[in-house]
Amino acid sequence: MPRASESVDVAAVVRLARAFLPGMIARRSGGILNVASAIAFQPAPYQAVYGASKAFVLSFSQALWAEARASGVAVTALCPGPTRTGFVD
Length: 89
Description:
β1, α2 and β2 form a beta-alpha-beta unit. The longest helix has 24 residues, at 4-27. The protein has a two-stranded parallel ribbon. It has 2 helices and 2 strands. Helix content is 51%, strand content 11%. By secondary structure, it is mainly alpha-helical.
């Protein structure tokens, strides 16, 4: 079962796009920046659900980009690599 953070990673991206993208397309202006991760590009043992949620964000962003690009709306997925934090501790 996914943790709350992975559920938010997926649900928030979809809900926010659904809320704001139609207005941007109507105005023919705007942009969406979704935060995925380098983990979106390959499976990661012991981080399967997190990796899958970030892969969803990447794939969803790519699909929205293809749908919105003719309207002048930019959709980008940011995929940062590992960073040293206290999160794993």
